[in-house]
Amino acid sequence: MLKQFWGYLEPRYRRQAILTPVFILAEVVMEVLIPLQMAKVINLGVNLGDINAVLVHGGAMVVMALLSLVFGVLAAKTSVNASVGFAKNIRQALFHKVQDFSFANVDRFSTASLVTRLTTDVTNMQTAFMMCIRMLVRSPVMLIGATFMAAYISPKLALIFLVVIPVLGGLLGVIAAKTFPRFQVMLAKYDALNARVQENLTAIRVVKAFVREDYEIEKFDASADDVRAAMVRSEKLLVWNGPVMQFCMYGCMIAISWFGGKLIIGGSMQIGDLMSFISYVSQILMSLMMLSMIFVMLVMSRASASRISEVLNETLDLTDDNVTEDVPVKDGSIVFEHVDFSYSKDKDVLNLSDINFSIASGETIGIIGGTGSAKSTLVQLIPRLYDVLDGRILVGGRDVREYKLDTLRRQVAMVLQKNVLFSGTIRENLLWGDENATQEQVEEACRAAQAHDFIKSFPDGYETELGQGGVNVSGGQKQRLCIARALLAHPKIIILDDSTSAVDTATDSKIRAALHEKLAGTTTIIIAQRITSVMDADRIIVLDDGKIDAIGTHEQLLQSNAIYREVYESQQKGVA
């Protein structure tokens, strides 16, 4: 795992990461030498009344303190640069990996969990990395240096450390082993909390419409309490860290004061040496306190690192690595040959079963079926958002698995059931279809999608800022903007997945007429609940429980298919 993360240090950040321990080492050397000069000031200057010794060794202490300050500032600067760069690269790697995820990969990680990993977990890694290149270097070096100098001053008193430090290390190791799994549980609870917040904010209009604020507050409070309980459970072990360390070290201080006093009375130790020795004890205590903080951070970051590695090491379900030649899509013809599909990849639980049909380039196909009949699942296989379990799908005469993913998807424009707009202006959202489109082309697409008039009704027109997810436009307006965005892509295949369900029948009719004119030569697949939306299609596919029940024109299906006739008659009664 360490080798994997080391790769995210660019050469410039790696230099900063290497320079930090060098500056820290220089800083610690200065700090360790200061108490030795203090002992000389007391023993040679104060006790013997030698003012020259006070000036010389006191001046040396001032110089060492200034140098220590300079090295400390440099270490802080380089460590911040290195850790921030390290975190940036990990966050970029995570985001890039998620962009390559198939729908199946995304399904394995909740959106809230991915957000937590990109934010909280990366921040934990950043903090841990900075502490490692600073405090994890400073603490052991100071511990060793101070212990060595203490042994140099009084080997007998230094024996106390040899007893206490191994005991302390063993106790901290036990605490770490017991705490790690608890932090993993705590981070999982964070995922659940983020999911609750995200769901509530995304659907805030629904919450208010149904007056469910109290219910949502209860659910949030329960999730927040779960996080609190998990943190308390983790901290119950970690809280022993400080008291155990301080008990051991203050025990050392008492023992040193007792035995050191005896040595001074016996004449085998000078007062300056004991004061210097106590200063080194303070440095050792400070080092162990820093190690204690690092210890806590490393336990937390280890859990975060494992969660980040899960995403980075996730095997992609869909890749085009085996495609050596970037072949363009010749036309919009589509062929399904004995296609089976299962979200669970279980042949005994099929969502689509033995699907066979062909669509000529430029043909308009309607798809009708009840809820759960796998209409959306069927069309998502065409741009290879999922892979088939058995059989194959041909687009432009080639298996979709023989195309580069970008090449295939650029020729298959989709307007999904759930219409998504992004923060930014209306124009910026429309340019997702073609970033080089002119204003004339943008307006032409919007007129075809019956969106131009309502866009111009806004004070800022096409430069109107959309809220996150397009919250300041209606459902019907959002659908029309998404259709215009798809039209700007000039695809060979366009898929409209129930994309006019939120508009009135008159507007739906106008959109269909405009699309028929504008998409001449483009293969069009229309999924709809309303028969009127597909009755003019060249052919209509009737799906039932993941299987094709019938294929034909509107007139043919009225005569021969019970499902289609039943839907048509029920809708006609509704109109009547």
Radius of gyration: 35 Å
Provide the β-strand percentage band: 5-15%
Unreliable spans are none
| Mean pLDDT, all residues | 83
With helices defined by DSSP (H or I, 4 residues minimum), what is the helix count? Answer: 20
Indicate the overall shape: elongated
- Proportion in helices: 55-70%
Largest sheet: 6 strands, mixed
What order do the strands of the largest sheet run in, or round the barrel if closed?
6-9-10-3-11-12
Number of strands: 12
Cα(first) to Cα(last) distance is: 67 Å
| Class derived from helix and strand content | alpha/beta
What are the key terms here?
alpha/beta; 20 helices; 576 residues; four-stranded antiparallel beta sheet; 12 strands
